[in-house]
């Protein structure tokens, strides 16, 4: 088969916290207003990069943030709190919406704080993910998970946060062999991640915000 026939069309689910509650680990360097603007800028830049990836058919954003709406992606309401970690529950809600609209569709849950995401890097990860039932990409630290994938015949097992990469590996999910430098692994959590963005090609909204911050 040619690579075209093998190409899997993906629905990408992007969870985004209400902006005013996001990025608390940056509270020491950014005030609440700027942090909220950063959450929104990074989320929309992540979505734009995902939409530009050739393997992505649709993007669904799972959020309760009223400022995150747009014509190029769908919005899935934040699910009610349960005993499950809220991020994992949000991803499950997004996956359920994707599968309700397109039964058996391959789904990829992508964190919404990847402002340096490049479409080619996401395509490279999804090309690898097309060969395994469940895959994941660890963050640059190797502990968290920034992308998890599930082909149409299996349900994803949403698990994010510190330690989630090891949990996915222990569950037999395949660590997708993307380079450490891949922009799929570059989430922004800590002040050091924010500083590193100054030397990184980021989406236009995040770039504009950083330019205002740095004067
Ligand atoms: N919809 C939704 N998205 C979430 C939730 N928790 C985290 N996210 C998103 O998932 C991505 C990664 O989460 P984190 O790195 O923990 O982001 P965060 O919770 O804003 O960061 P901290 O407050 O510093 O822990 C970010 O895009 C968040 O906006 C949640 O409960 N619901
Ligand atoms: C959500 C994650 O962790 P963090 O809170 O460190 O971004 C993750 O990377 O799985």
Automatic annotation (TrEMBL):
<feature type="binding site">
    <location>
        <position position="161"/>
    </location>
    <ligand>
        <name>phosphoenolpyruvate</name>
    </ligand>
</feature>
<comment type="similarity">
    <text>Belongs to the CofC family.</text>
</comment>
<dbReference type="InterPro" id="IPR029044">
    <property type="entry name" value="Nucleotide-diphossugar_trans"/>
</dbReference>
<comment type="pathway">
    <text>Cofactor biosynthesis; coenzyme F420 biosynthesis.</text>
</comment>
<dbReference type="Pfam" id="PF01983">
    <property type="entry name" value="CofC"/>
</dbReference>
<dbReference type="GO" id="GO:0043814">
    <property type="term" value="F:phospholactate guanylyltransferase activity"/>
</dbReference>
<dbReference type="InterPro" id="IPR002835">
    <property type="entry name" value="CofC"/>
</dbReference>
<keyword id="KW-0547">Nucleotide-binding</keyword>
<keyword id="KW-0342">GTP-binding</keyword>
<keyword id="KW-0808">Transferase</keyword>
<feature type="binding site">
    <location>
        <position position="145"/>
    </location>
    <ligand>
        <name>phosphoenolpyruvate</name>
    </ligand>
</feature>
<comment type="function">
    <text>Guanylyltransferase that catalyzes the activation of phosphoenolpyruvate (PEP) as enolpyruvoyl-2-diphospho-5'-guanosine, via the condensation of PEP with GTP. It is involved in the biosynthesis of coenzyme F420, a hydride carrier cofactor.</text>
</comment>
<protein>
    <recommendedName>
        <fullName>Phosphoenolpyruvate guanylyltransferase</fullName>
        <ecNumber>2.7.7.105</ecNumber>
    </recommendedName>
</protein>
<keyword id="KW-0548">Nucleotidyltransferase</keyword>
<feature type="binding site">
    <location>
        <position position="164"/>
    </location>
    <ligand>
        <name>phosphoenolpyruvate</name>
    </ligand>
</feature>
């Amino acid at each position: 088969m040619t690579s075209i026939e093998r190409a899997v069309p993906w629905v990408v689910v992007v969870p985004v916290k209400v902006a005013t509650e996001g990025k608390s680990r940056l509270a020491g360097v950014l005030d609440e207003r700027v942090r909220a603007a950063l959450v929104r800028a990074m989320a929309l830049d992540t979505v734009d990069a995902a939409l530009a990836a050739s393997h992505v058919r649709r993007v669904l954003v799972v959020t309760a943030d009223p400022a995150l709406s747009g014509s190029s992606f769908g919005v899935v309401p934040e699910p009610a709190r349960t005993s499950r970690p809220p991020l994992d529950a949000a991803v499950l809600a997004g996956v359920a919406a994707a599968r309700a609209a397109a039964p058996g569709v391959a789904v990829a849950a992508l964190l919404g704080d990847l402002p340096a995401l490049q479409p080619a890097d996401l395509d490279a990860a999804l090309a690898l993910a097309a060969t395994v039932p469940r895959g994941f990409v660890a963050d640059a630290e190797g502990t968290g998970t920034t992308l998890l994938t599930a082909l149409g015949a299996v349900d994803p097992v949403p698990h994010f946060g510190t330690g989630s990469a090891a949990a996915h590996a222990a569950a037999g999910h395949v660590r997708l062999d993307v380079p450490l430098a891949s922009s799929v692994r570059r989430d922004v959590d800590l002040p050091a991640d924010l500083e590193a963005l100054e030397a990184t090609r980021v989406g236009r909204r995040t770039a504009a915000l950083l330019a205002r911050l740095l004067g």
